[in-house]
Amino acid sequence: MLKAILTRGMESAASVISDMIGRRVEMSVPDVSLVSYEKIASVARHSVEEPSVGVKIGVTGDITGSVMLIFSPPSAYRLVDILMDNELGTTSSLGDIGGSAICEVGNLAGSFFLNFLAEATGLHAMPAPPVLDGQTLVAEMLKSSVREGEDAPCDGNALVAQTVLTQSLQSIEALFFIVPTPNSLATILEALKAENRRESEVT
Amino acid sequence: MPKVLIVDDAAFMRMRSRKLLEEHGYLVEEAQDGQEAVKKYAETSPDAVLMDITMPVMDGIAALKEIKKRDPRARVIMCTAVGQQALVLEAITAGAKDYLLKPFDPDKVLASLKKLVG
pTM for the full model? Predict the structure, then answer.
């Protein structure tokens, strides 16, 4: 059930990216897993080993933590070219406007995902202004996110969903990570169970 | 020529909105957070404001309240991502004239502005 909810939430995030760039974005969710904080880095290492462009959105409310949308630099540059109506290959580094464009994509995708999660669980989740990280290893971003969101000892688990967004002609790929704090993870799982029970009672 | 103040912390969104509005005959002023918006509003007396809600320093709701306190006739359109209905409700209660969901549909932006300022 968890994977189904997250997949639908990420479809919602993918749809807003499609709306923004005016082209269809395909989405797949190769893996949704609960992993210990210590193993987060190794999960990320399977995906991207090079410095990446990431947008982190803090989450407040009943659920706390962060969601992150992460691009390889070539994908980020292609996305900027599309958003700015540039000829492909024009962008080779993120300036102020390019970084802002990537940030806004992350902001909207994160907001749509959180909205879906809030509706599915009945919980309140508010996004904070997005923060762009231009040149950091994915593993370091995730570890930093966990440290910032910590509200329990470090022996807890995090929910890591990896998503691949692909714009067919331009091959834009991104990863989507959800890193709730340990207490929030328990809250999400409990809310989903309760919703499931309610649906069973109705049917 | 009607003047519109665009308030958004995202430079990309300000650039996109400016392009759209200038192409349709509006004069444009910009601010990158609520605090700057309050100052710019006092300095430039725009006919309407397009105000993002989630911003650092001072958010859109706080800026709306401050602007309405100084000019009760201010015409402010709030802009927000989906899922912030509670904030939209608060903004309408505080005097916002309309709200727009991001990502923007250019036709809706223009229709909302036309309704307010022509």
Answer: 0.79
